[in-house]
Design a protein that fits this description.
It comes from Pleomassaria siparia CBS 279.74. The protein is α+β, with helices and mostly antiparallel strands. It has helices at residues 59-64, 68-82, 95-107, 145-151, 203-208, 212-218, 229-237, 289-304, 364-368; strands at residues 12-13, 21-22, 44-45, 52-54, 84-87, 141-144, 181-190, 198-202, 222-224, 258-260, 262-264, 270-273, 283-284, 310-313, 320-324, 328-332, 344-351, 362-363. The protein has a single domain (17-155, 168-368), classed as Double-stranded beta-helix, CATH 3.60.130.10. The strands form 5 sheets. A 7-stranded mixed beta sheet has the order 3-4-5-15-7-17-6. Strands 14-8-16 form a 3-stranded antiparallel beta sheet. Strands 10-9-13 form a 3-stranded antiparallel beta sheet. The protein binds fe (ii) ion (FE2).
Length: 373
Amino acid sequence: MPSSTANGDNGTVRNASITKIPTSCPSCPTPLKYSGSLDHLPFFEVTPIIGREYPTVKVTDILNAPNAEEQIRDFAVIISERGVVFFRDQDDLNVPDQKRFCDLVGKLSGRPEENGLHVHPIYRDPGNLTMPDGSTDENIYVINSEAQKKIYKTMARKGMDEPKDLSREWHSDSTFETLPSDFSFLKMEETPLHGGDTLWCSGYEIYDRMSPSFRSYLETLTATCAQPVFKSAATAGGYEVMSPRGSPLNVGDEFAPSHPVVRTNRVTGWKAVFAGVGLHVTKINGVYNYEDQMMREYVMRLITRNHDCIARMKWTKNAAAIWNNSCVWHAATPDTHLVDGNRTGVRASSIGEVPYLDPNSKSRREALGIPLI
Ligand SMILES: [Fe+2]
């Protein structure tokens, strides 16, 4: 059911650059409610604001439970409220079950019916690394520092002689797609004794830390999320990019959608800053270059100067994390070259809805009645 259109016409919020922001999610018209089916599972919150860890839960037990659908739907709610959920010791979780869990979390929480798991655009690249058993799967992205170097070898890298600026690591998965990922599920198969931590930052909380007038302005904006590296990599490699990629709408090789800077999370109904910052965000539309730079630097400043908005995963062998890309950004820590040992993982991602902003949705703190101070 479309929401009211206080800021625009024809069911959209008006944007200065003519791009219109959808105001509802047709496949999930109202937020989901937690049913209590996970209350028997021990957990702890990673921080007061973001993250939860279930230290003893086996994902395979959830998949095989008599009320699996109810539990997985509740996990979707918890992941979306907390931003990211950690599991440990998933030694019995194979790739098909990892894919099934990720797919069901998206499917049972109201993603468009026709969607599925994301297919990486350059899956055909002969240089891609395989999974530890030597196989490949079009729905699995292999995490490996060597692979990362190959994938981004055609990307322009500026300032390589400058000190590191790790702010460039922050991103939301598949923002370069018309329909980006809702849930991503990463299992770390191997990890060094230390190094390679992943961080997640709450887009809900970054929104809550802005002044009401600035929030209102950002809500009128969209950003272009162009990622030309895939097309250039395919051209250089002499192969076609994969298409479609988890949705009939994720096709072609342009990779330059516009997304709302602030979006509503379909599961919680809460607002989060989304395309205001990140690796795949190219430009905020309809403003001058300096204004674009100023706004994105402000969002990044909030991320880097508010570490209480961040959950950090110290990976252990067979640990796993599942997060909701519409309300968190994440960043890997590229420090594993300093230690012995490999860092390899496998990730599946579900494809969600067209990002939207329901003008009647609330912030997380507004919805939960939590004062800012
Ligand atoms: Fe990622």
